[in-house]
Amino acid sequence: MKNKIHKIAVIPGDGTGPEVIKEGLKVLKAASKKFNFTYKDQILDYGGNRYLKTGKTITDKELADLKKFDAIYLGAIGHPEVKPGILEQGILLKMRFSLDQYINLRPVRLYNSLFCPLKDKTHKDIDFVVIRENSEGLYKGMGSFKNKGKKNEVAIQISYNTKKGVERCIRYAFEYCRKRNKKKKLTLCGKTNVLTYAWDLWQRTFDEVKREYPDIETDYAHVDAATMWFVKNPEWFDCIVTDNMFGDIITDLGAMIQGGMGIAAGGNINPKGVSMFEPIGGSAPKYTGKNVINPLAAICALGMLLDNLGEVRAAQAVENSVIKVVNSKLKSLSAGKMGCSTQEVGGLVVENL
Ligand code: IPM
Ligand code: MN
Q: Domain 127-257 adopts which CATH fold?
């Protein structure tokens, strides 16, 4: 695939999104020179500001156009002046669903134990990946109100799980675990003791698919217990597969034990289509424009994007550079406490590349 020009759609989005994406693009430029690949980026203005001006979230035509890119690089979606849900459902979830990015891949790696809130845990203990189903479950938006606004109101929110959706996610997780080639252990994280329809399907499918992967050790944890193990024994985990809602929740906890939202990145993966990479922390409106937000999560997301494009050496170099910066210059990974500005951190990653 050499000499291919990678077409990258860039959606800086809201809040601190544009600031962190700017640093990511600095790193992309440097990586392309050093590792000799070419790319063409196109900046798209989808987000809260455009919505406030035009009333548009994202159109079908825009979604269709996104499919022509090789990858999407996203900053953050979420605006304090827009009612919660409109942009999240109208832009972020719409992209994930329409582009069939059915995996949300969220690595949890501690690069420097100084930034871990857990006592006595090092990089050896916190190194796992959450494979979150990204197209179904409670996120499907199915449900209804009965007697809305009355005393006897009922609100129903359905978790929608298809055999196809569950199976492709579990299969992806086994393949990923095998390819990662570390502990070769995959933990199913669910709630079989209470959610006896959805998790019956998940458990049965997991048991079926695992027969094809005798080299992978398997395990099960209820989601509540998993949050406990994340804090107590994170070293037990290698790969974790779970549904959309549980994956959302446990990856925020995962982000905290790896040092915070400032370093946590994720990929919304369509293995046969276009995938989208983002820092998982959101738009952090209170830090907007202050040059204090940590761009490393966005830079790690860029590393994942490069890996997805097949620029494996560049991806590895970006991660290694982040590791160096996290182990030398930064006082903290949190916004405003790093001892460096957003732009300085981006510059350091470029220097160490
Ligand atoms: C995430 C976010 C989103 C989600 C929100 C913004 C819709 O929290 O990417 O984890 O719930 O998936
Ligand atoms: Mn989340």
A: Isopropylmalate Dehydrogenase (3.40.718)
